[in-house]
Amino acid sequence: MKKFMQDKGLIIMLWLVLIIVFIIGGLYTNKMIELRQPEDIEVLAQRYYDEVDLIDLDYNLDPESFGTSPYIATFTYEGSTYKTYIDLNFCYQDTLEGADLNLIVMAAVKHHAEQEQLLQNTAQLFSYDDNTRTLVMKTKGFAGIITIEMILNTTLDGIESFTVTSNENYDNEYNTDYAGASAPAVEYQMFNQYLNDGIINIDSIAGASEGTGIGMQELITLLDLYINTLEGGN
């Protein structure tokens, strides 16, 4: 009986030693990974960046997906061409053409998009209701988001009516000469100018916010692109 208890105690001790070894080994491995990880990620990111070639960055004009994926990136990687949906911050959303890729490859695509600035990620098509012909677009102003809700005409080649909701303000160094009404007065004036003349002339509004004008101009450019895709409903 005594020998049995000694043998059992020895087995328990051996198990405890093994458990301690595994714990220490695991902690050591994790620590080494933690120490090496920043350098490894940096090296990998640079390698993938060099292997990715961003060919084009374009607006997504498909109402089924442009709300969450406003842009389409076309790029090559390891001899193959890919198209992917990306969001306002150029982050990967979904694959349009080609096989699914590693997220580190998509991180390289995001980096290229940020560096090469093939388009300004300011304006976006937010939603479109085919039944009511209601198009919602958003753009970044100097100090906030500008949202324009439009009702397209029955021939789908122009705007019937619109409303502006804006978090913009004109109290900054760019518009010290502005003496008009508060936001969204400039946005309304610019959009009405577009409806009447087909363009926005920033200089025609004395002291208008530089950020407001840039954001509205990009929104108009994107709006024209989208209306052209409707082809009058054909």
How would you describe the overall organization of this protein?
The protein has two domains: 50-116, no CATH class; 123-233, no CATH class. Helix content is 42%, strand content 25%. With 234 residues, the protein is α+β, with helices and mostly antiparallel strands. The protein contains four helices and eight strands. Helix 1 (2-51) runs parallel beside helix 2 and helix 3 (185-197) packs across helix 4 (210-230). Strand 3 (80-86) and strand 4 form a beta hairpin.
Helix content: 40-55%
H/E element order:
HEEEEHEEEEHH
How many domains? The number is 2
Number of helices: 4
Low-confidence stretches: 2-6, 31-36
Largest sheet: 4 strands, antiparallel
Arithmetic mean pLDDT: 81
The Cα radius of gyration reads: 28 Å
Strand order of the largest sheet: 1-2-3-4
Number of strands: 8
Shape: globular
Computed structural class: alpha+beta
In whole angstroms, how far apart are the ends?
A: 94 Å
Q: What amount of the residues lies in strands?
A: 15-25%
